[in-house]
Amino acid sequence: MIRSAPSASRTEHPYSRNGYVNLGNLNLLQIKPGVEPEEALMLASEYLNCAAATACETADNTVLAFRPVARSVAHQIKAAQALVEGALERMAADRIGVGLD
Questions:
Q1: How confident is the model at residue 26 (pLDDT cuts 50, 70, 90)?
Q2: How confident is the model over 34-57, as a mean pLDDT?
C-alpha cells in the first residue's frame, strides 16, 4: 500500500486507548466570548481561502499519482467555503431585511 503521508507513531499514554489520546469533550479551538457568529464565519472563510490555495498549489506541484487526491481536497475546501460564504450572505441579508429567495 502506498501512503501519502507517514503514519503517526502510536505511543502508550495513561489515558489512551489503542495508543491514541482521548481528549473527550475538550475543544482545542473555541470561539471567544463576545465574538459574533458572523465574525467567526468570516475568519473561517479566510482559513478556507488559505487551505484552498495550499491544496491547489499542492495539486499543481505534486507527482501525477497524487494529483487527483490533492484536487479532491481542493474541491472539498471550495465546497465548504461556498457554504460559509452563503451563510454570511444570508446573515447580511437578514440583518438589513432583504430576502435572498
A1: low
A2: 91
The DSSP secondary structure of 31-82, one letter per residue, reads PPTT--HHHHHHHHHHHHHHHHHHHHHHHHTS-GGGHHHHHHHHHHHHHHHH
Q: DSSP secondary-structure letter at 28?
A: S
The C-alpha cell at 10 is 502510536
| CA 8 to mean position of chain CA atoms | 20
Residue with cell 502506498: 2
Query: Using CB atoms within 10 A of its CB, is residue 51 exposed (0-12), middle (13-18) or buried (19+)?
Result: middle
Burial state string for 64-83 with b = 16 or more CB within 10 A and e = fewer than 16: eeeeeebbebbeebbebbee
How many CA atoms does the CB half-sphere of 35 hold within 13 Å?
Answer: 11
pLDDT by residue (tens digit) across 63-84? 999 899 999 999 999 999 999 9
- Give the pTM: 0.63
